[in-house]
Amino acid sequence: MPISRKATASLLIATCLLAGCSSANDDAGDSGAAPTGDYTVWDPYPQFDDSSDWVKLLSQCGTDAGVTVKRTGYDTTDLTNKALLAAQQGNSPDVLIVDNPVVSTLADAGVLTTTDEVKVDTAAVSPNLLAAGQIGGKTYGIPIGANTLALYYNKEVLDKAGVDPAAIKDWAGLTAALDKVKASGKKGITFSAIGTEEGSFQFLPWFWGSGANLTQLDSAQGVAALTLWTDWLKNGLAPNSVLNNTQTTSWQEFATGDFAFSENGTWQLANAKKTGFEYGIIPIPSQAGGVAPAPTGGEFVTAPIQDDTARYAVTEKLVNCLTNADNAFTTDTTLSYIAATEAVQTKQVAENPELTVWVDAVKAAKGRTSDDLGTKYPKISQPLWTGFQAALSGSANPQDALTTAQTTAAAATK
Amino acid sequence: MTHDVLTRVPAETTVGTRAPKKQRNWAAWAFLAPVVVYLIAFYAYPLYRNLDLSLRDYTVRSFVRGDAPFSGLDNYREVFADATFWPALLHTLAFTFVSIAFQFAIGLALAVFFAQSFRLSATLRALFLVPWLLPLIVSASTWTWMLNSDSGIVNTALAAVNIDPVNWLTSPDWALTSVIIANIWIGIPFNLVVLYSGLQAIPAEVYEAAALDGATSWQRFWRITFPLLRPVSAITLLLGLVYTLKVFDIIWIMTKGGPADASMTFATWSYRLSFGNLLPEFGPGAAVGNLLIIMALIFGLLYIRIQRRQAQ
């Protein structure tokens, strides 16, 4: 008898461990009955813990709306599939903060509400940033902030080579500068041309900067952009390791102090101060001159569809709280992002003049899923990265590589 | 295994009297239940789901709604027609067989070497286990650094002896070789340990007798060690095959299957289809995964067949 009782007890414990028994100590505060007690928020910022400004802001927004916010930070690459699975199981979070090119995928899956359903005012948001979340005339979220790419330069290396970064306005000027740097014994430029979305993200400023369009990868302009990259590698102006570089490893190369330029994002600003050498930033030039459109990075605040539509009232408060001018300023400073609205951008520049070049870059930037590409974009991006990898590794010339890419992309988006 | 238990229990109960039979049956089922539940929940259902995924036309929308239309073998046709298919198949086979051949040969050589106990042999043997103890992400990342085209230690060493640098991970001619080298290094300890324990089971008298008959050490290896080690070798090779077929982490960390698919295998391809893109393609991804399972199954059946023939 005592044995069986012990067994029952241990079985119970085991079941509890597996199924997650909740006993008397449910969350304090709300007495349970109302489903409005807990609101879940998923974000792709696992680097922030409960003591961070970001999580404090989330809790504050919850308190203001009279609810408790339960927040989980996921790795950004995991979040798409997590969100899809949650939607399949019918337990989507109330607020989902997700990378901007994913918004169209989730919207296509019927997972997200539009900004009309959950009343979110997007009027102040810059149209070029909002476009990434718009499909078929509907808007599926609001950007929390944006980041994009520009060229960091090492002042010392450029001085030694006799290059004035401010004079670089087009591709020819940049290549000439790289040649001078190489002649002075230093290395030219590093970027990330890895065979993933990250590589496509880094290639797009050059691709778009030539005037090429994602619907025609093998246009003369597209080939010109890829030839620019390929020639840099061929002439030793960029290292061969770019083929395997993520943006982080490419940054590490730049941080050694040997490189003149690094194509990298707003998020490296904090690290740039730690490098120990003087740095500066110029926008990525386009082929003919002027600022090239770089792809926008950064997340959208979205509201996944719930069975209980009564929840939207609180969700609306949460979304608006996270994206209103004051909080957006705090959040974007924490995340090292540029704000999505003109007003907050002005405030950011006033506070930190260093951000001017980034604000300009963000204004010229373009969403990858914009131009109503939506879910077609991923099917174009993959052939594109396979294409530039083929050309850079020397297994095909730029023209052939992009012709193959276009054939694959056209078949996939048909 | 469950099959064994199921058939044996009733056979035994027929001997007993009528009343306890039912009870014993219940007890048998109760004991069996955890295993059955476990097998169904963690093996049968996922396999079924994977098969189901590969036979339906999934878009993100139908994935969420669960109403993907049945599309027969369309996903498989799509996978077979994909330009990545033949290169990926070739890479998978090359990766698997070259890895296994080297892992087994080196592992066996080391096992024979360490079988003759000498001073420090235990310490040295322990050192060979290091690749096994390291998390794959650590060893693969270290290989990535070492093989870096511009700042890697391997190219620096080559430069010291006046050999031109090799683009290990970024050249289409070398990427597959590089991941194979890393995988061989990681797989040696497993072969060493299993084969070493197999060697311990060979009775010393056989060697003594051979030595008395004047057999050279070469003859002793080929006439005694190798044949007597055959059952252990067979299982080592089979486990190695199944394990190497599905190797994913090393390749993904070192090259992401690139440059331009030059080191893409079925495992990395399946991952890229299902998770490595902004827009998941679960159907084709599951189809490639199933092809991998079928390949492993063929090798498994081959092993059983060889084992049967040996037993007869």
From TrEMBL, chain A:
GO terms for molecular function: maltose binding. Belongs to the bacterial solute-binding protein 1 family. Keywords: Signal, Sugar transport, Transport. The lineage of its organism: Bacteria, Bacillati, Actinomycetota, Actinomycetes, Micromonosporales. One of its GO terms (biological process) is maltose transport. InterPro entries: SBP. Residues 1-24 form the signal peptide. PANTHER family: MALTOSE-BINDING PERIPLASMIC PROTEIN (PTHR30061), MALTOSE_MALTODEXTRIN-BINDING PERIPLASMIC PROTEIN (PTHR30061:SF50). One of its GO terms (cellular component) is ATP-binding cassette (ABC) transporter complex, substrate-binding subunit-containing. This is Multiple sugar transport system substrate-binding protein.
Automatic annotation (TrEMBL), chain B:
GO terms for cellular component: plasma membrane. CDD domains: TM_PBP2. The chain crosses the membrane at residues 26-45, 88-114, 126-146, 174-196, 228-254, 282-304. Keywords: Cell membrane, Membrane, Sugar transport, Transmembrane, Transmembrane helix, Transport. The keyword Plastid does not apply. It is a multi-pass membrane protein. Pfam families: BPD_transp_1. InterPro entries: MetI-like, MetI-like_sf. Belongs to the binding-protein-dependent transport system permease family. This is Multiple sugar transport system permease protein.
